[in-house]
Amino acid sequence: MKTNLYGLILALFAVVVFTGCDKDDDIRVSDVPQNVMNAFETKFPNVVGVEWEKKSDYYVADFWKEGMETHVWIDSKAEWKMTELDFGTNLGLLPDAVQNAFRNGQYANWRVDDIDKYERLDRTFYLIEIETNGQQDRDLFFAEDGSLLKDEVDKENNDVTPSTTF
User: Which residues have a Cβ under 8 Å from the Cβ of 116 and sit 6 or more positions away?
Assistant: First the structure.
């Protein structure tokens, strides 16, 4: 009985330790350079509950705005590079052209797993992650006008960044 209790305590400790390691990229607000913080606060005034991450050469502010998870990418020169909005699985948040392109495309009968909108200096685009039984998950990238920019097999931990190309 005592051995089982120690085993349970050890297992719970391991869960707590390893769960805490999931967010390796998280940084403290005090580690965000002031010029980056100023650029963020200028573009997104009055935002509360911001958490920061460091991804590659970017500082990423994570917060909720108007019910949507939002990620803002700013480089070390304090230049805004990208905003990502998580639409969940709601196709209705997409522009009509993108909705129609998806619904009339070859993957119309696949299940939507996630939808994100990306705003960058060079363009705005949408990523629809889809899945179906017996097939590899796919990532579909659409331009605002509904044209398909890229169709690829979904890769684990393959973040879209400001330097992602089509």
Answer: 84, 85, 86, 87, 126, 127, 160
The H-assigned helical ranges of the chain are 2-20, 34-43, 96-103
Reading the block at residue 85, the tokens are 């909005």
- Any idea which residue has 């400001």 for tokens? 162
Q: What is the CATH number of domain 2-153?
A: 3.10.450.360
Which residues have C-beta within 8 Å of that of residue 27, sequence separation ≥ 6?
52, 53, 54, 59
Domain ranges of the chain: 2-153
> Do 49 and 63 meet the contact criterion of CB atoms below 8 Å apart?
yes
- Residues 18-33 pLDDT 10s: 334 445 689 999 999 9
Please state the pTM of the whole predicted model. 0.83
Q: What residues of the chain score a pLDDT lower than 70?
A: 1-24
Q: What is the pLDDT of residue 10?
A: 41
pLDDT score recorded for residue 25: 84
